[in-house]
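Narrative progress, year one. The postdoctoral researcher (J.K.) led the effort to move from monomer predictions toward full complexes, under supervision of the PI. The following entry was the first complex the group processed end to end, covering 328 residues in total.
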Amino acid sequence: MAFNVNVSALLGMLACIALPAAVLACTPGDPVRGAKIYERCFACHAIERDRTGPRHAGLIGRVAGSIPNFPYSAVMKKAGAAGLVWSDDSLDKFLENPVKFLPGTRMGYAGIKDRQERADLIAYLKQATGP
Amino acid sequence: MMSNIFVPSFNLARRAFMTRAATTTLSGAAIALLAGNDALAVSNDQNSEAAIAADVEILKTALGAEQEAIAAYQVGAESGLLRQPALDLAVTFQGHHKAHASLLASTVKKLGGVPGDAKKAADYHFPTDQLKSDVDVLRFAASLEKGAVSAYLGAIPLFGNRDLAKAAGSILGDEAMHWAILRQAVGDVPVPEAFVS
């Protein structure tokens, strides 16, 4: 019983050590911290209503640029048509540097450079915008 | 409950400020930074069309947020929930946002863009059902102001034109003051941290 190891957890830890690309998975986001970070978005975004930026309700799994009648940039619509779907991974890349990820986006924001902050924000978005 | 920020001495100072502001609207440093600065067009000649277009998009996004803030303060002012002196404060801050919007719109035009029009108030779908008291209104306004501070902070590094970055910093400072005063008004620590983000 002393060696009752959670094999999945152990494999996950090993993957984190072995695979630099999996680093994000090693820093699980905290939705409570993420809620605080989301306050930075309040000038343009809300969960339930479109503002200068589109609503975030239903964000995870949504095709980019797909809210009907929202005036997206051409590049956002094009990205959606090309298959961009908002997921942990795509949000992480976009939030790090929106204008680099999607040049021409109307989200004129330098981005969230801290990986943990992005993970926290995404954790909050997943919690707050889900069905 | 409102905090004791609105003590008589504060009111006197604020009235004096408002009187001065009324006579200097659209003639202060912001004009020099943006709409009245002919050097802006010259300096932009040195930038690529793509960089100017990117700056215009940032300005248009900022304009949209300012227009929404103007509408939000109007909703607050007409809600019947704000008493004096909070009502005067809200109207004063709304006036600042009008000045910001005016300058942003004129700058977009100067750079060859087309500024967007404000929506009808109803089209903003403000969460009015959640605004039951003066504190609710002021907290809602504070949340918009904080968001605006973050938005300008996030935009400043992206401007190709440094004059625009400087002007955005000027607006950021004003909106940070709004945020702090609104926090104080509802009894929160006015400046909770050493840095904004």
